[in-house]
Amino acid sequence: MTRKFLMIAGCAAIALATGLAATAPAWAQSGAVAAAMAEGAVGEQADGYLGIAGTVSAAVRSEVESINIKRRAAYTDLASKRGVTVQDVAAATGCQTLSSRVKAGQVYRIGAGPWQTKGAGPIALPSYCATAG
Asked: Which residues are the signal sequence here (predicted)?
């Protein structure tokens, strides 16, 4: 992939490693969202956002949307500081999230593909993630 993506991926890795420092609320989840993730109704996506994978309450759906708004704000801030697109930052963060934060038994989605359940091994990441690690 390009040097630009490598730089973005490095920034995303640093941001995740430090817990997104000032943007920690972008990753914060209520007990309801955490429970929905444990049940496979909510999952992480390669685009850097949470997605609805099953039936959830209106309250959980609203919270997922709120978390995604906070994530987009964090991605926008980092993108403006690095001179890259929000989509690039989100995708690089998605690569890092799928490889380091999704636990066995949780669901995830790559692109427009189907929701999958993470097993004991690593997730097969999209090809653009290959240079992120």
From this structure: 1-28
Tens of pLDDT, residues 7-48: 555 555 555 444 444 455 566 678 999 999 999 999 999 999
Do the beta carbons of residue 46 and residue 112 sit within 8 Å?
no
Query: What is the tens place of the pLDDT at every residue in 91-108?
Result: 999 999 999 999 999 999
CA distance 107 to 19: 21
The contacts of residue 8 (CB under 8 Å, 6+ apart) are: 82, 84, 88, 89, 91, 92
CB 63 within 8 A of CB 32: yes
